[in-house]
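Input sequence (511 aa), recorded before submission:
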Amino acid sequence: MKKTTLFLLLFLISSCASIKKYNENLEKTIAPEKLKKDIDFAYLKLQKLHPNLYWYISKDSLDFKFDSLKSTITKPLKPLAFYEKLEPIIAKIKEGHLRVIPPAEKFTKKEIKELERQKGLLGRMNYVIDGDRIFVKDNADQFENIKVGTEILKIKDTAVKNYLEKYKTFINSDGYNKTFQKYSLARNWPLFFTIENGILDSVKIETKYNNELKDFYIHREKITKKEEKASKAKNKKLTKSETGKVKDYNIITKSYNRDLQFPTKDSAIAYMKIKTFSGTFSRKFYKESFKEIKNAKSKYLILDIRDNLGGSLYEINNLYSYLVSEKFQFVNDIEVTSRNAMFHADYFKPIPNLAKPIAALVYPLYFVGTALSTKKKDGKFYLRNNGIFSIKKPKKDAFKGKIYVLINGSSFSAASILPSKLKGDKRAIIVGEETGGANDGTVAGRYSTETLPNSKLKLPIGLMLIQPHIKFTNTKKGVVPDHEISLTTQQVLAKKDLALDWVMDEIRGEK
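Predicted structure, token format:
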């Protein structure tokens, strides 16, 4: 017991010292020669590990961009300033999963607990981006009484457009898609602002609502003990309940990740909303839901995956088996760069520190499995099919009626692969906005997180080329809907749902 206590004490002291050293390094400048070595290191790792690096940009063009970047490094830079130069080049590769992780201050466990007792600042609201303008989309807890539709003109006396022009260069999407950026920027600009300015106790914003200008000094509020206790009790009850598990209750958004409804009295229409393919209890949800749909004798299924950023490939493969009536292959063999590529995959990184000794004992088995996981075909390397994505049979309660799928520019990764497959197999009518993820696949799955040797910036590189089993469009764009519907900013702020309205009108017309 004494040895364990001593170990934990030494671990905590070491961890605090490591955090302090890391934060100190964020303020130190790095010599140009070292930064140029980091650029070469990053490009070398991309060439070695990324299975489709030149999908959307030619090698000559990317070579030129990396060389040009090195020519701009003429003076020492701090890690954040270096990130602001490197990330826009990485974004030119046009792979939505590929990005440098911005260097941010780290905190001790005590500091993290203190921050968790606070409600935050700009991140407490949701936003709509319209060009170089920011509007408040949602303000659920009436933070500072800022109304939905309020335009933010300035932050810290700096025009919003100046922030957005800078942050836009950090945003990436798959291929030549243009719909993803505004959604990604709306989600992430508060994060970029915080990394640039640090965690502030308060911030001044200048706003406009109904042509009335108003300044707000928004403050970082503390969560009261009463609020904290009530929230914990509610979340515990929901996440441990059968409904909370199967529908995957999210304590951050305070909503269910999955939901099934029958919007008409005769239950002819089933509406299924999936916010993210988390994988959590998904098998049970689909099994119960499609049995319920079958018993209800629904003739139409509306699958809503708007604002779904993807997730589990296993989940969408399983979901697809409820949407077809014949045997199918969901994705092609997964391509990697070499027989050794998967040895670079992050193994210890996602494992908690206290569990790493156990993980180390299991590693020999993982090593052998990885060594046997690849095969060579036609001069390329692929992962051996382990049965998950081989030819599958449809489920016994598979839906046989008409399917409509709702998508938008924030349907990404797995939420682009699913509608791509459905459209390619002519199994569904796709409605809405072009997806943010590519129609012909993506590079993701397992990652190798590379640390640049001098700046210590992190570069996670996807190791797996995942493509739906379809006839490729080769458009280098997202999934293009059969019926396109895009909303104006005012329609978004007014909570209009024109895509769902259109589908309901179509069904009423048929009925």
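Checked by second reader. DSSP finds 15 helices and 19 strands in the chain.
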